[in-house]
Amino acid sequence: MVANTRKAARAGGIRSLDAPLPVRVEVDADGRPIAISVPKSRGAVRKKNSKRELPCQWRQVSEVLDSWRIDDEWWRKAPIARVYYRVVMEDDRSVTVFHDLATGEWYGQGN
Length: 111
Prior knowledge:
Layout: E1 21-22, E2 24-27, E3 33-39, E4 56-72, E5 80-89, E6 94-100, E7 106-108
Antiparallel strand pairs: 1-7, 2-3, 3-4, 4-5, 5-6, 6-7
C-alpha cells in the first residue's frame, strides 16, 4: 500500500496519452499516402516543444488497409475534419496516419 503523503492533488501531472505526432507524408494523385517519413529508431520520441528534427527515413507504403473520414464538432470555431489511413509499411509495420483537412498537416497516431 502507498503511504498517504498528505500532499494536495494537482492537475500538473496529467498529460494526454497517445497524442498525435507530426509526420511527413508523400501522397499519390488521389491524396492517399504512398510513403511516410518515420524515425530511424522505433523508440525515438520528440521532446515536447522541441524544434529539432528527429533523424528520419522514408518508408514506402505497401498497402492501405483502411481509410475513413471524421467530421466532428462542426459547431465550434475550429471543427475537426480528418481523413485517416491505416497502412502497412514496407517493413511490415502497421501505422495509422491522418490528414488534418483544416490545417493541411499530417499526423501519426498510435504507432
